Give the backbone structure.
Amino acid sequence: MKIQTIQSYKQKDFVKARRLAHQYIKSTSGNLNPNDRVVKIYFKVESDLSKMDFYLDKLYKQEEQKDPNIYKFIYYLLDKAYLGKDVYLAKKWGEIFLFEAGNTKFYSRGIFAYSGLLYIADEKSPSKKVLKRIPRKKMKKKWRFKYSLLKVALYKNEKKAIKQAKKYLSKYYESNHSDFVIAMLIQSYLNVKDYRNAKEWKQKLDSDFPDNGFQNEFASIAN
């Protein structure tokens, strides 16, 4: 079964690899080895978050000296929880990852997923605190972009939103999210009664993004 699982994974037959890996893990009677290749494959391909949580719980509790692979498995779970918007699991494993996985190369990505899930749960203050733990100097370009976008969203309707939005637009104006960020910037100017800048950015939004979905929202601002 072990060889079949590895072969299925190499052939990118992830459905079969997941089924075989799960059978293999069940056959170990819960004595999981984080360095076992099939265990590594399982956490990569498993899509059922409750199963991942179950086996990760077993692994974490049986290892007094935590193997680095355990933190990689937690990262896989956080990443999938982010896609599935599972806030409960994010809170359960996110704090462990935050304080124990700092030396791993995937720390920034795991922390981003955790912060993003807290944002989804409308827990903005905790999300900001988590996001600040990301070592930005080591962050790859793709993650810098995502980090900046999440930061803009976190400061929505706050004074800092203007600074964060303009900072984002100065770097990523050609991104697919710029119309959304400009809309947040306009609203931020309206919140502080800076109608001149709100009008200027409304004109820019309509000029550069004519198909934006914010016409009705800012219809009261005369061009």
Observations:
- The CA atoms of residues 62 and 150 lie 35 Å apart.
